[in-house]
Amino acid sequence: MVFSKVDPGYRQCLLTVMDNIADPDIKFDQNGVCNYYFEYKEVESKEVFKGEEGEWKLEQLTSKIKVDGKGKPYDCLIGLSGGVDSTYVAYLVKQLGLRPLAVHLDNGWNLELAVKNVENIITKLGFDLYTLVVNWEEFRDIQLAYLKAAVVDIEVVSDHAIFASMYKLAKDKNIGYIISGTNIVTEHIMPPSWLYKKMDFANLKDIHNQYGKIKLKTYPTLDFKKFLYYSAVLRLNPISILNYVPYDKRKVKEIIKKELDWRDYGGKHFESLFTKFYQAYILPEKFKIDKRKAHLSTLICSGQMTKAEALKELEKPIYPSGELEQDMEFVLKKLGLTKKSFESIMQTPPRRHEDFKTDTHLKEGYMNLLKKTEMIRRVLKPKK
Known about the structure:
The chain is built from 16 helices and seven strands. With 384 residues, it is of the alpha/beta class. The chain has a five-stranded parallel sheet, with helices on both faces. Strands 1-2 form a two-stranded antiparallel sheet. Helix 4 (112-125) links the parallel strand 4 (100-106) and strand 5. The longest helix has 21 residues, at 360-380. The radius of gyration is 21 Å and the shape is globular.
């Protein structure tokens, strides 16, 4: 496939709603179709298992999880945010007869509706829940550091904590499988410049060292050595179970509403007030990024939405009408920021995550090490 360089004028993909606003990585072929469409189709063909193949692979995977978890209190670990993906994962593992320990991150920003969703899920499915309550002073200090650093992916702060906690919990409780709600058909498309590696503790640490004010004593971290141990030695790698089943977001919402009394909270990942404010205000205002384009484009590629429907969705205000002023007042007060100091932060020119220390060179060496030691690790893998 031959792609052309993006001209300085506005261009939108012929098939999706991806465009060249705030995206230096987008390319278009001779017909005006962007690289993300072709990348999605390639990944879908390799990693989304449909029909009988999906049923067979899911059955094999489920059987292995049950066998390896025999005699243990839990045979898998699932994250539970109260959002659509994690809720359906919980519903699905129950239908499959698995025995999960559900993990929920309380970082101080959860909406009351999301908390109620989690309570309903746990009650109706009969799962045990482990709630990780992050030290608020430490968590706020890291979030403020990321805001002041002017990097794009502030959500690293929450995501790193939940990943670190789940890996550690899986090890401590001898759980061999972490089942994730990450999936191809609703969230694959995302420009590389719009997010950053969640596991890069070196990057998080350097940003906090330069802009933070307090010492981190309890914030869950996952440095490269721990990650290497968990993933290469213990082989604790997340399983994207939604890639094995038909996953139509509209139909799934109806299922979980009916079966689990789940209630919708609005946009994708809006179960957190900070995430809502970040995606609907900070990203578009400071970085000119509208993540709805990526989310909607993925749904177009997976056949769950037409381009016309997506364009109509994009015509709506990015921030729910009448909620911005109230949310901003709450967020700034909770972070301890004045309106003036926040405006100053918003006016600071964006910086790349790579302007700070990273562990990229270590990860490259890690991938080479995995290839060389695959056979050895199979032999040395701890018995469950």
